[in-house]
Design a protein that fits this description.
The protein has no helices and 13 strands. By secondary structure, the protein is mainly β. It starts with a strand and ends with a strand.
Length: 152
């Protein structure tokens, strides 16, 4: 059985102006599948291209802890718990990047969204999946999220 959760970079976004891991999810004692991911900003009205990646980490970034939230309040809490070397946002130390699974350019006026289809992204128990700006973006308040299913 799977349960659906969301991890995001806080409730109001975070000002980011450097190449950085924006958000990471570390699977707990259950595998997970990325269902949807998105990134946007709401302040700039200037058409600018940015670059985002979804990648595996072989060592966790040091992040601000975020406890994944349930979409259905009667579901169990996520096994992908929040922690400074687990699920969280805005890296202060990068850890080690692994395989880049998605490498995409996009216009900040539209925002960026990826939705699973036949190109499923699976994460094994204890695995780490991250969203990253591989190069410094325009300084803005960025809002990021990853929706995932956890197979408990």
């Amino acid at each position: 059985m799977s349960y659906i959760y969301v991890a995001k970079n806080g409730d109001t976004g975070v000002v980011i102006s450097t190449a950085i891991t924006i958000l990471q999810v570390k699977a707990g004692a259950a595998a997970l599948e990325l269902l949807r991911a998105g990134l946007s900003q709401g302040l700039s009205e200037t058409s600018t291209m940015e670059h985002v990646q979804i990648l595996r980490k072989t060592a966790a970034a040091t992040v601000t802890s975020f406890t994944p939230r349930r979409f259905n309040p009667s579901d169990p809490v996520a096994l992908a718990i929040g922690g400074t070397a687990a699920t969280g946002y805005t890296a202060t130390a990068e850890g080690t990047d692994g395989e880049v699974l998605l490498d995409d350019g996009w216009n900040i006026l539209n925002g960026w969204q990826w939705k699973s289809g036949e190109d499923r992204i699976l994460v094994p128990q204890g695995g780490i999946l991250a969203m990253k700006f591989p190069v410094a973006p325009a300084s803005a308040t960025w809002r990021a999220y990853m929706v995932f299913a956890e197979y408990q």
